[in-house]
Amino acid sequence: MNNRWTKLGTRSAALVLGAALLIPGLTAHAATTYTAKDSDTFWKLSRQMNIPLQQLMDANPGIDPLNIYAGLKLTLPGSANASVLKSTASKSVAQSIATASGQALAFSKVLDIKATAYSAAAEENGKWGAVDYFGDPLKLGTIAVDPNVIPFGTKVYITGYDFAGLPSGGMTATASDAGGAIKGNRIDIFVPGSRQFVSGFGYQNVKVYVLD
What we know:
Pfam families: 3D (PF06725), LysM (PF01476). By secondary structure, the protein is an alpha+beta fold. It has helices spanning about 40-50, 55-60, 80-90, 120-125, 195-200; strands spanning about 30-35, 75, 95-100, 105-120, 140-145, 155-160, 170-175, 185-190, 205-210. The protein has a domain at about 95-210: Barwin-like endoglucanases. The longest helix has 9 residues, at about 80-90.
């Protein structure tokens, strides 16, 4: 529904299972190994480990920030963040939501959001074509966000919409796109199908659960 702004992101190679992330200024002596969880992102790790996000991403130019998998071995600061690693590992789940399939997902907060939808049509995607901010193909589960409200890479669970082109009851999604009209508590949900079909989504009020 909304024409998205020019994407500034670069296309990145997928993160290979078992690869290490190198943090600037660290020696092998100071580094420790951290096993990633499925919900981890560069943004979350930068906050938890007190590492500047851009510094973390610049140190890994060939890494796709949206492709961090559970079980992946990451290289992180050692002694300076030992207490953070310990508290992160032992943190209990305070809140969870049951998905339409009955799966329990832990979340840190819930947002009341106004949602629109967009298609892969050229009129909505400009010269870059049907790709997200990072250059990856648009797919079900891609949403455009205001990164000041929902940072890139954040995984969410969306409920409250009513549209035949989306999973019934709710859906998981990743904040991996942006749009000129997507400011504040707004999201634009990518929906496969023609522009005419997707425009039927209109404007809907939804709840967005920010997943841990």
